[in-house]
Amino acid sequence: MNWNTLLFLVFPYVALVLAVTVTVYRAVYRPFSISALSSQLLERKQLYWGSIPFHWGVVLILLGHLLALLVPRSILWWNAVPARLYLLEATGLALALWATLGVLVLLYRRVTHPRVRAVTTPMDLVVLVLLLVQLLSGVAVATVYRFGSYWGPEVFTPYLWSILTLTPRPELVQDLPWVVQLHAFNFFVLLAVFPFSRLVHIITVPLGYLIRPWQVVIWVRRTRFPQV
């Protein structure tokens, strides 16, 4: 067994099994452990400047990757016109840089703010570092090996579908540059640690919030005692 087989055949299935089984276990047997564990009450300003670009940037980037997986021909059709290709590449790079800024702010906040650091777990730092590696490697791919939205559907989409359909073809990524392989492998590392982190809260869909009554949160309630 060579390194390519270990990293891009064996490990992806280990990551998928962990992501599914541990997530289901937590959802069924430890549902109250699935929470974002917000630290907003401990510090707000840095959280705002980190959370907004991180969440919006990552969500939009993931949607773009999902489109490349589900409808690769549509992406190739869009990129057939050079102006649209440049627009898509520039948009993806801008979103990646925006999300990277957000992760850096969140990581700085976790390390430097005393009250936030007190409730920070090692897994929180591991996830933020992995996200930073994923974003930086993505930026490197977009700037050094340009037009990934053009060659990605021809390389990565068949590879990912081969993994999902249990007909793995790790040879598709064997000859890719190391930074591209790092970007792909780090995704599976994130997938493996996902169910053990607070990121697992994204599987919940809080539709009940749309119809539940308003809640009134009182920070300090002063009790008025009757005068005697």
Automatic annotation (TrEMBL):
One of its GO terms (biological process) is nitrate assimilation. Heme b binds at H55, H65, H183, H201. GO terms for cellular component: nitrate reductase complex; plasma membrane. It is a multi-pass membrane protein. The chain crosses the membrane at residues 6-28, 48-71, 83-107, 127-148, 187-211. The keyword Membrane applies. One of its GO terms (molecular function) is nitrate reductase activity. Residues 4-219 form the NarG-like domain. It holds the Pfam family Nitrate_red_gam. It comes from the Bacteria. Keywords: Cell membrane, Electron transport, Heme, Iron, Membrane, Metal-binding, Nitrate assimilation, Oxidoreductase, Transmembrane, Transmembrane helix, Transport. InterPro entries: Heme-iron_electron_transfer, NarG-like_domain, NarG-like_sf, Nitrate_red_gam. It is found in: Cell membrane. Its main location: membrane. PANTHER family: NITRATE REDUCTASE PRIVATE CHAPERONE, REDOX ENZYME MATURATION PROTEIN REMP FAMILY (PTHR30598), RESPIRATORY NITRATE REDUCTASE 1 GAMMA CHAIN (PTHR30598:SF3). This is Respiratory nitrate reductase, gamma subunit. It comes from Marinithermus hydrothermalis (strain DSM 14884 / JCM 11576 / T1).
